[in-house]
């Protein structure tokens, strides 16, 4: 066979392989399911369920992938202990339980240290943050805990009656972990240089009633971060912080605030809308936020995803609102090539996959596929890097 034929065959095999993508969907109803999404198939063959597990019941509402390991929460209410479980992702995309460990009640998010040896969970119901030593093969050992209290309720007393850590995020350098605390109106900051424990630093204060839920560092990749975008669930706004990291400390200065509805009016309800997920595009040029409960799309039957362009100085400019494909888009994720967005709509019990256009950051107004998955809470793409020898 000629070299040209070999290259052509290899390219065709790679193209075929890349057409089938894997998506994991965690549900508040107790399951984590894996799906194959084939963008080249006809409408009937676009999505196929591959496997399902209920070993993270009652509510595996968040998953994080590190290598071929998937870490999942088992969200529970007080006084039940929360559980973090590690699964190996099999070649057939079936999840194989490798280990688990208990922490405070209500874990809702997981971050993994840069070397994979430290796992951090944020617990909404239990008002705490847990650390687990990881062996890299799925084994987990609880190593540290921070549990918080408030002297008095916040500005939104029915939601800020106590601390509510809502997400754990590792910064791109692997040196810091941040935890937005919705109840305390602050972003908690930790130094994560140790492989088993973290050290609490001075936190970042947000305005009263802001309700920080999730955040993302800018720029994307392994670069040293210069800015931090934080979305407020209770205020439906995004704060841009300019950050500096030196001497083992992460400092932040608020420089801008913008509505999650951009230049459009914020719906008044009832019920009032509440923001949820925030994410940057793979190239860092666009920022996306999900709005729950606004029903501004598809004739008032769907909630929205807001799109913003990101300038080199981190200034945001509103672009558009597009349908989420359902109600209450709790989570979404974007493929590494930027072509597809998967959105978990837990209010309508489905996930939807939309075409995204990397050249201008826009998202299609109609989903390519919408699939029933009761309690859909987290939709995360699994894209292992292919190694060539």
From TrEMBL:
Keyword Signal: yes
Source organism of this protein record: Tuber magnatum
GO molecular function, one term: isomerase activity
Top-level taxonomic group: Eukaryota
The protein's name in its UniProt record: Putative isomerase YbhE
Isomerase listed as a keyword: yes
UniProt keyword annotations, A-Z: Isomerase, Signal
Similarity annotation: Belongs to the cycloisomerase 2 family.
Leader sequence segment: 1-19
């Amino acid at each position: 066979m000629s070299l040209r034929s070999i290259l052509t065959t290899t390219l065709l095999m790679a193209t075929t392989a890349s057409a089938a993508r894997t998506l994991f969907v965690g549900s508040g109803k107790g399951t984590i399911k894996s799906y194959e999404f084939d963008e080249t198939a006809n409408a009937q063959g676009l999505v196929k369920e591959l496997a399902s597990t209920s070993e993270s019941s009652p509510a595996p509402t968040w998953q994080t992938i590190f290598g071929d390991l998937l870490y999942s929460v088992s969200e529970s209410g007080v006084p039940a202990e929360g559980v973090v479980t590690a699964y190996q992702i099999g070649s057939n995309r079936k999840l194989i339980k490798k280990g688990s460990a208990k922490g405070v009640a209500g874990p809702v998010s997981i971050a993994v240290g840069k070397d994979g040896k430290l796992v951090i969970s944020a617990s909404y119901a239990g008002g705490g943050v847990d650390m687990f030593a990881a062996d890299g093969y799925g084994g987990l050992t609880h190593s540290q805990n921070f549990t918080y209290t408030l002297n008095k309720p916040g500005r939104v007393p029915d939601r800020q009656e106590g601390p509510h850590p809502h997400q754990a995020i590792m910064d791109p350098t692997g040196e810091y972990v941040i935890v937005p605390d919705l109840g305390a109106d602050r972003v908690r900051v930790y130094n994560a240089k140790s492989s088993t424990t973290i050290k609490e630093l001075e936190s970042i204060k947000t305005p009263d009633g802001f309700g920080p839920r999730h955040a993302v560092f800018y720029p994307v990749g392994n670069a040293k971060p210069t800015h931090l975008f934080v979305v407020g669930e209770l205020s439906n706004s995004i704060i841009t912080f300019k950050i500096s990291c030196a001497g083992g400390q992460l400092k932040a200065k608020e420089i801008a605030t913008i509505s999650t509805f951009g230049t459009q009016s914020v719906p008044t309800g009832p019920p009032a809308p509440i923001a949820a997920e925030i994410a940057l595009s793979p190239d860092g040029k666009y920022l996306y936020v999900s709005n729950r409960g606004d029903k501004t799309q598809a004739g008032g039957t769907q909630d929205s995803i807001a799109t913003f362009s990101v300038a080199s100085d981190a200034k945001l400019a509103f672009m558009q609102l597009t349908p989420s494909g359902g109600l209450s888009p709790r989570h979404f994720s974007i493929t590494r090539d930027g072509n597809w967005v998967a959105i978990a709509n837990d209010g309508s019990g489905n996930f939807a996959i939309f075409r995204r256009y990397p050249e201008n950051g826009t998202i299609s107004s109609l989903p390519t596929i919408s699939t029933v998955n009761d309690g859909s809470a987290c939709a995360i793409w699994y894209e292992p890097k292919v190694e060539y020898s």
